[in-house]
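A further point concerns the way the authors explain their paired sequence and structure data. For illustration, here is how one protein appears when written out as sequence plus structure tokens:
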Amino acid sequence: MRPHRLEHSATRALAEFVCGIDKKAIFLRRAIWWAVSALLVASPLPGSRYRVVLLRLFGARIGEGVVIKPAVRIGCPWLLSIGHHSWIGEGVRIDNSVGVTIGANGTCLATTGAVEAGSVPGAFERPILIEDGARVAACVVLAPGVRIGRDAVVTRSSVVTHDVPMRAVVIAAADRPSERRLQRRALV
């Protein structure tokens, strides 16, 4: 006996919804966001307040006293949460097809870093949590699913693929010269 098949119209109606949200509505929201983001949020124009207002209009949860510098690129602001008195540096890219939470009280993402919560849809989509007071330096990449602990520091050019404990310091491998290279230099 063949399994029961849904009628074509019912199948089509189900296919148009993702987790109770109409796919057309999602597409329209993203299209409007991409236009607004390209023109205003990711622009080199100075000012932070209008960026915060625009992000809130698109569903971001942003605390008081947050500074968002020019040329910041955010994938889905409706999946972004930023605590009070945090700072997002110039050129930071937050690729978030899933949630990204950035803590409060001086949490800082420095320039040209990348937060990759969902860089490959469906495959590597895991939320990122940056806890209160954490500092993430310039040119850092945070992989999907990482958690940066309270008051932790991630130094320049680091690639973080595992959780960082509270008050830990992550030093990029490129920042430490290898012994082999030092020995080779001594011989020349």
